[in-house]
Design a protein that fits this description.
The strands form four sheets. Strands 8-7-9-6-1-17 form a six-stranded mixed sheet, with helices on one face. It has a five-stranded mixed sheet with strand order 13-14-12-16-15. Helix 1 packs parallel to helix 2, helix 1 runs antiparallel to helix 3 and helix 2 crosses helix 3. The longest helix is centred in the middle third of the chain and has 22 residues. The chain has two domains: 188 residues, Ribosomal Protein S5, domain 2, CATH 3.30.230; 183 residues, 2-Layer Sandwich (Alpha-Beta Plaits), CATH 3.30.70. It is of the alpha+beta class. It is built from ten helices and 17 strands. Bound molecules: (3R)-3-hydroxy-3-methyl-5-(phosphonooxy)pentanoic acid. The site of (3R)-3-hydroxy-3-methyl-5-(phosphonooxy)pentanoic acid has 14 residues, from helix 2.
Amino acid sequence: MLTATCKAAPNIAVVKYWGKRDEQLILPVNDSISGTLSTDELSAKTSITADPTFTEDKMWLNGTEVTIWDNDRLKNCIEYLKKIAQEKLADKSILNYKLHICSENDFPTAAGLASSAAGYACFVYTLATLYGLENEELTGIARLGSGSACRSIYGGFVQWKSGELADGSDSIAVQIAPASHWPEMHVLILVVSDERKKVGSTVGMRLATETSELLNYRRNHCVPKHVEEITRAILNRDFPTFGEITMRESNQFHAICLDTYPPMIYMNDQSHCVSHFIHKYNEKAGEVKAAYTFDAGANACVYLLESEVAKFVSYLNAYFPNNIATNDEYIRGIPVQVNSLNESEIQSFGVVAPLAKNAFKYIIHTKVGEGPQRLDDSESLLTSDGNPKNLKS
Ligand code: PMV
């Protein structure tokens, strides 16, 4: 019996991927860049066991059995990895063994984070680890599961190169810098209370590619410039430039959504209040100290340096007061020392009344992290006979 257990985290794009040039192979119309989050606060965990006595491939997702072979994306990932294993492995007997796969996410679906990115990155990394292929090029395989998953194969700051070839072989992710290059880079996820169902990314991207007149302009003129500038900002640890491009990119992505016909609206009133608040905060600071970014949902992700977190959250609490959740429930993840603002701080901020009450369900405080990791077998989600430890009744 051979087994491997790994975890991987979601990533938050600062140059957005939106639009595919090939839907089957999941090839994007433009390059994108993201920070991979730390697995300490949010992660997907996968255990895979291969054994000659197993009679069929089986998979459990968050405690419920699912059918692997109905899912083309999962099937593609398994087949591609097995193809590489066929070429690389001296002893190929393991490839004949059936697999038991068990996967769990430890982050709330309401966080609106691309759980599929962490999930597919983790799945591909775990199967590669089981076959001893963890040092091979895996990003192109994770991409077949979910586009943005390819960026979660590495930690730190990662660029997904769109590539030009029709077969997608040059559409891979590369690391710009590991998390240790800029360890002060923290992230706050402001989980807004609104839970309306949004148009999924596959449908949204298809419509945008077919109908948005601005999308081609963005791809040809804006993204190349943003990629070059933000890469330089990351390498120089230049937060104001990093933050400005992050916010401009988010705004442009939502402009493309609005330019789609019929339009797609992902941000809501709360999201716009957050954006307004952050611009005000930066104006008061005299430079960009915090940067919002919104994906295909209303939640805000805020990039900021560790030294700014306590002050930022203190101001955020003053303008978005919460009297529903207790403090422990409200700010999750890395602890934050929150202070109450005094009258003169409130006066000098220029916004006197709170912008919205109970706008967020909770806040997750995390940072950019090191990427997927193998865990000890004692942390496996599968028992020694290959059955899931946690099953939903
Ligand atoms: O990989 P998908 O299909 O979940 O698309 C992700 C799209 C955005 O999150 C909006 C942007 C991005 O680059 O992550």
